[in-house]
C-alpha cells in the first residue's frame, strides 16, 4: 500500500484519492497533546536552547531557564546556545562572541550546573547539520510556510525570507532529536515548533524505524508560560520592544523605571469587575517574583475596588530588583573568568557530541546509509 503519511505519493491518482486520509492522519499528529507525557520519567532526556541574539530576559528565565534548573537534578540534560539559529535573522556576527559568552554566563549565574547538565554551543556539534539535512526531506514547504513565527519574521524582515528562516523548526527538531530528548522546556511561543518536532519525529520513525521518542514541550507548572511585555503588545523578547522587556542585566533604576511605565488601565475598578489584559499581565509578573502574601494583598485590593496601580507597580519594581540584581551581579563576576567559561563550553560540547554521534549511528543504520 502507498505510504499515506508522506508527500509526494508516487501515483497522482492515488494522491488525490488518499488526500483526505492523509490530512486526518497528519492532523491527529499536529493536534495531539503538544506537552510532554510525564507519566513515566525513567531514562527520559531533556533538551533546550536559547539564541544568543541579545541579553537574556525574564521570559527566557521563566519560559526556559527556571525549568532547566529543576530538570538538571533529575534528568540527563542538554542545554544549548543556539548560535546557528541566530544567523537566520542576519545579526552582525562580530557580536556573536560577546553574545555567546554573555548568554553562557547568564545561564550559569541563573543556577545551571555544568557538572550536572551539558551546556554547549550549537555550532560545535557537527552532527546537527547532517540530521538537519535528513529531516529537511521530511518537512514540506506548505507546512513550514504556515508556521506563525516564520510569517511574523517575514512581516518584520520582508527582504530576508531566507531558507534557514523557513526551515527553523526543522533545525530545532534536529537539535532535539540528536539527543533523543523527550522533554523540551520552552515558553508558550514555542508550542507550535514543538508540535512540528513531534510531527517530524513521527514521520522519521514511520518511514525508517522507531528510533526517536516523541518530544514534548515541558513546564513544571504544567501550563506553558508567556511572560508579557510591559507595554501589553506581546511577549518580552531579546531584540524587540526593549523598553518593555526586563533583562537579567538591567540595573535597579532601569528595572523600576520600566515597571513604572507598564501599561495599566484607569485605576480602581468597581468591586467584582474582571481584570483587563494589562492588569492580568501585571498580576502575572507579580506571580513570578513576589511573595504569596503580597500577591494576595493586591488581589484583595483589586476585588474590593481599592487597588492603586502606582503602589502595585512600586512593589513589583522592588520585587523585580530583588530577583534580578543577584543574577546580574553573578553574571558580571562569571564573565571575568573567560577560562572557566571556555572550560564549561568545551566540557558540554564533549558530552553533547558523544550523545549526537550515538544517535547518528542509529539514524544511518535505520535509513540504510551503511553500505558494507
Ligand atoms: P527570544 O524570543 O527572546 O529571542 P528565544 O527564541 O531564544 O528567545 O527563546 C529561548 C527560550 O525562551 C524559549 O524556550 C522560549 O520559549 C523562551 N521565551 C522567550 N520569550 C519568552 C517569553 N516572553 N515568555 C516565556 N518564554 C519565553
How would you portray this structure in words?
This protein has 372 residues and is mainly alpha-helical. It has two domains: 1-227 and 338-372, 3-Layer(aba) Sandwich (Rossmann fold), CATH 3.40.50; 250-335, Tyrosyl-Transfer RNA Synthetase, CATH 1.10.240. It has helices spanning 12-30, 58-71, 83-86, 96-110, 127-136, 141-145, 148-156, 163-166, 168-177, 191-208, 252-260, 277-289, 292-304, 309-335, 338-367, and strands at residues 45-50, 76-81, 118-121, 183-185, 216-218. The strands form two sheets. The protein has a three-stranded parallel sheet. β4 (183-185), α10 (191-208) and β5 (216-218) form a beta-alpha-beta unit. The protein is globular. Bound molecules: adenosine-5'-diphosphate (ADP). Residues 50-51, 53, 59-60, 62-64, 186-187, 189-190, 225-227, 235-238 line the site of adenosine-5'-diphosphate (ADP). Adenosine-5'-diphosphate binds at residues 50-51, 53, 59-60, 62-64, 186-187, 189-190, 225-227, 235-238.
Helix and strand layout, with pairings?
Elements: H1 12-30, E1 45-50, H2 58-71, E2 76-81, H3 83-86, H4 96-110, E3 118-121, H5 127-136, H6 141-145, H7 148-156, H8 163-166, H9 168-177, E4 183-185, H10 191-208, E5 216-218, H11 252-260, H12 277-289, H13 292-304, H14 309-335, H15 338-367
Parallel strand pairs: 1-2, 2-3, 4-5
The structure holds adenosine-5'-diphosphate.
